Structure prediction request, 123 residues.
Amino acid sequence: MKLYTALLKADTEPVLVREGFAWGALVFGPFWLAAHRAWIAAALCLAAYVLIAALAPGPVGAILAVGLAVILGFIGHDLRRWTLENRGFLLAHVVAARSPDDALFRLLTHRPELVARFRSGAV
Prediction:
């Protein structure tokens, strides 16, 4: 079972963010953040990579870049949640499920008023 946090905002679909290590953030770093529309975090991450490359060339720079990638893997989903909260989303629930679809089903089962949004086409 995986844990998902459900973030809600009026008149939008709920957003489910998985808890745990973000392999995409580890491998793709700022591009993964940009793909999830975490623009500020992506820009800061890219700036950190550029600074590492400029100020610490050679093996030290490579070690620092790998360290930054590992840190991004650990905090990638937290940066997504931070970005969504800055856009007005509120943390509503933590859902345990096997997949994102199961998590959405459990959320809609627990919060039937959200189902009405999907039926009315308000999203």
The mean pLDDT is 92. Residues 2-120 form one domain. Residues 59-86 form the longest helix (28 residues). Strands lie at 2-8, 15-18, 90-97.
